[in-house]
Amino acid sequence: MATTNEYIEYVCEQINGIGEIRYKKMFGEFMVYVNNRPVIIVCDNVPYVKQLECIKEMMQNVETGYPYKGAKEHYVLDIDNLEFCKTVISEVEKVTPLPKPRKKK
User: pLDDT tens digits, residue range 48-90?
Assistant: First the structure.
């Protein structure tokens, strides 16, 4: 089951207000960008964030999973817990580098 357009719109609505939000369809699923930094991957209507040191303590009691086959283990983000979600995303956004521009062929 792929992520629905309605769900990705819901995820973006939930985190509205923490910066510039946009999403991009990738491989049938979605990447959510905050201030042009890839912060959340949404697969099968489940939002995931990378397991980073900066959020390890606050995420110690949350569910984990694999967004797609071959991926590293990620934290499952409770998108309905607004304040916690925004705190986590803000911390992840601080340490996530901007993507490198693609070279034109």
Answer: 999 999 999 999 999 999 998 999 999 999 999 999 999 999 9
The domain defined by 5-95 folds into Yope Regulator; Chain: A, (3.30.1460)
Nearest to 12 by CA among 62, 66, 74, 86: 86
Say how far apart CA 92 and CA 51 lie, in whole Å.
9
* Cα 92 from chain centroid (whole Å): 9
CB 29 within 8 A of CB 2: yes
pTM of the model: 0.89
* Environment class of 46 (CB within 10 Å of its CB; exposed 0-12, middle 13-18, buried 19+): middle
